[in-house]
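Pasting as-is:
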Amino acid sequence: MTKLTEILQRKGRLLTTEFLPPKTAKLSDLVGKVLKVATLIDSVSLPELKANEVSVPRFRMNAIFTALRLRDLTGVETIFHLTPRDYNKNAVAGLLLAAAETNLQNVLVVGGDRYNNKEEHVLSKNVYDYSGCTSLVKGIRGLESEAELGTSRFCVVVGTDPTVIYTGDRGKAESEVAKLVERQDAGAELAQTQPVFDMKYFEFLDLAREQGVKIPILVGILPLRGKADSIEIEQRYGITIPHEVKSLLKDNGGEAGKVLGLELAAGLMKEGVRCIHIYPREDCEFVTSLARTLSGSNQFP
């Protein structure tokens, strides 16, 4: 049993957040951010991002190494991301064995945004030796048996996108749930959602439970920065944001979006959600506000 699993079982709830690995060879800024919220959250997640053709530097520190150093420097439990986009099977095995040796046992398996043809030529190529998330989860569980990892078994988290429920397309929602069931059956122990934006999330949850999803679900909360920001998020990440939510946002400025995020988190907890993941967009103050909002409402002891 990993420490993350112990936290979930002991408290019956989980509050997690994430920060991006640095673009430089220095961890000091990231360590400072994590220490600001260390007493409020249960774990910090480190995304595995693809290289950015526009930004300079274009690359970021490896998520697994960042998770290891961050845990050791701050004492905070960490989760590293792993994508089938970036690693072949041999590389995955080597990384996981190294992670197991250091007791770095929490991994979030995500598909990873594919590189387009231009990006493949300039930056890097898609790998997908594992065909997708389900295949990678099976690979992790197979490696554990082959390497006889025993107590070093990983807590495998997988992603899911409940925002398909906002499209009104029942077929899309059922397809997303089917993927989650496959990932669960492959060995995932926890799911983390893309950010949700209103209480309609429960329609997705009801469908998931009806179709056999039993694992706990971390519900994502993200503070929108305005209407333009919401449109960019939809286009970039392929998630859907309700029109009703967009109508409450100004063209610019994120205070309204932050308030909506805080209110939604409190509402979700009031209706029984016990696991929240904060997408803070590098904003420590939002993490602090959300954690204190939940604690103050006595919904998140």
